[in-house]
């Protein structure tokens, strides 16, 4: 790592600090004793084959797995621990602490318009107050949505729906954005366009983790790529899965 980069990292804040996280569903353990730190301003890629636990890691951060244990600090506050009262019991608190989860499969409501979806993403008081400003930013990132604001999402193409789902996540006043498989199910050119848009998001003091099976879409465009294999992170050292790009500082 270059000296400048090292200095820059030491000044950066830990947005996410995961220690000893295990998580799963019923008797099945999917995540195994996982550690991960993500700093403010970082865009991190998470790659790995189907079923190796990328989505489960995101769900665990949001408190949505069947069970979990271990520490998850979001902006310095503990949001992890044992979830003995069922999935989702504390998710609203994690969201208040600064999490925006953009789940795999869009989770959109076909009868609502594009604008209603975007507004629904501005769920904190501050994000709601600033929603017009935030919508403008989302429309700069996804210009095709401009003409579709009054259109019901059920009438949109797959690529447009994905833009709505991601745009809704970006409406939150979040400091950690978890984006699960943004190119999934899209034609290659459309998927690349969605990834381009995610790369253009100005993170400022926030951070983003993008889970993606298509490594080529992340290559040289994110700060780090981590590989996920059978519920464990294969850090920057695993050449086949992980590499680090160096930004000009
Ligand atoms: N809600 C659930 N209940 C039970 N098992 C689940 C649930 N969600 C995921 N799993 C299982 O957990 C394991 C990890 O799945 P996960 O979705 O986290 O992997 P992934 O790396 O994100 O892959 P994909 O890209 O397919 O989502 C798989 O064996 C999957 O079948």
TrEMBL record:
Domain ABC transporter: 16-249
Protein name (record): ABC transporter ATP-binding protein
MF (Gene Ontology): ATP binding; ATP hydrolysis activity; branched-chain amino acid transmembrane transporter activity
A GO biological process held by the record: L-amino acid transport
Keywords per UniProt: Amino-acid transport, ATP-binding, Nucleotide-binding, Transport
Organism domain of life: Bacteria
Pfam families referenced in this protein's UniProt entry, alphabetically: ABC_tran
Family membership: Belongs to the ABC transporter superfamily.
């Amino acid at each position: 790592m270059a000296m400048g980069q090292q200095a820059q990292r030491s000044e950066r804040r830990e947005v996410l600090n995961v220690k000893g996280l295990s998580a799963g569903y019923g008797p099945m353990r999917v995540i195994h004793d996982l550690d991960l730190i993500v700093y403010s301003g970082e865009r991190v890629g998470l790659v790995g084959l189907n079923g190796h636990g990328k989505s489960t890691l995101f769900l665990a951060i949001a408190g949505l797995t069947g069970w979990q244990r271990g520490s998850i600090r979001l902006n310095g506050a503990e949001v992890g621990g044992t979830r003995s009262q069922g999935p989702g019991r504390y998710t609203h608190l994690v969201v208040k602490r600064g999490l925006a989860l953009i789940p795999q499969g869009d989770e959109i409501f076909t009868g609502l318009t594009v604008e209603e979806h975007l507004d629904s993403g501005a769920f904190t008081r501050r994000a709601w107050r600033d929603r017009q400003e935030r919508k403008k930013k989302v429309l700069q990132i996804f210009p095709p949505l401009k003409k579709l604001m009054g259109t019901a999402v059920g009438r949109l193409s797959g690529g447009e729906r994905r833009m709505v789902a991601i745009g809704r996540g970006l409406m939150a006043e979040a400091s950690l954005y978890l984006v699960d498989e943004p190119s999934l199910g899209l034609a290659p050119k459309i998927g690349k366009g969605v990834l381009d848009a995610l790369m253009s998001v100005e993170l400022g003091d926030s951070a983003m983790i993008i889970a993606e099976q298509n490594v080529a879409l992340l290559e040289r465009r994110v700060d780090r790529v981590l590989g996920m294999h059978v519920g464990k992170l294969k850090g920057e050292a695993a050449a086949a899965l992980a590499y680090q790009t160096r930004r000009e500082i």
